[in-house]
Amino acid sequence: MRGPGAAAARTGLVGALCLGLASLAVAGCGYSLAGRGSFLPAHIRAIGIPTFGNQTTVFDLETQVTGKVRSEFIGRGRYQILPDAANVDAVLTGEIVNVSIVPSTFTEEQIASGYMITMTAAVSLRDTREDRILWENERLVFRQDYEAQSGANVLDPAAFFGQDANALERLTTDFARSVVSAILEAF
């Protein structure tokens, strides 16, 4: 074949070939979907997650955070999760150190319409076989914005979560996802 049609056909064939080779190169480069792998040692099969400590005034926060962290690990499907530190390959411990709320947005009348909630925790994952820390963050800070309920103007976290249980649910769920992703994806 000769002429303009042949040149276009060759260009299309070369382009398709290049695209195919590029696809093969990318497929073999080691990229994978987030949340699918784990950087924990292969011998870790059972992880103990005792109830976190709670130094805040928010009632039952430690129970909710611990439950969400356990559920997030279970949802990943690779590990047996137990509620204590006995007979496990690794132990995840945590302490909720502080929860604070500050207004972040205001109406034209200068009434708080949104809040920034900050939760600080210390979290550590220890390999019980080798007695070494696998992952640790002694000052894990988690921030989340929330819209205020109508007329609510509370800066006490216990009172805020008492009025808005959904905010506590979202905060603990997002916190658990962040912690488990950080541990399993080695960030």
Structure, explained:
With 187 residues, the chain is of the alpha/beta class. Helices cover 36% and strands 30% of the residues. The protein has 4 helices and 6 strands, in the order H-E-E-H-E-E-E-E-H-H. Strands 1, 2, 3, 4, 5 and 6 form a 6-stranded mixed sheet that branches. Helix 3 packs across helix 4 (165-184). Residues 16-36 have low confidence and may be disordered.
Topology, pairings included?
Blueprint: H1 4-27, E1 46-48, E2 53-54, H2 61-76, E3 80-82, E4 90-106, E5 112-127, E6 132-147, H3 157-163, H4 165-184
Helix pairs in contact: 2-4, 3-4
Short description:
With about 190 residues, this protein is an alpha/beta fold. The chain contains four helices and six strands, in the order αββαββββαα.
Structural class by secondary-structure content: alpha/beta
Number of strands: 6
Helix content: 25-40%
CATH architecture of the largest domain: 2-Layer Sandwich
CATH topology of the largest domain: Double Stranded RNA Binding Domain
Overall shape: it is elongated
Number of domains: 2
Elements, N to C (H/E): HEEHEEEEHH
Question: Major β-sheet, in short?
Answer: 6 strands, mixed
CATH superfamily label of the largest domain? Lipoprotein like domain
Terminus-to-terminus distance: 56 Å
Q: Under the CATH scheme, which class of the largest domain?
A: Alpha Beta
Radius of gyration: 24 Å
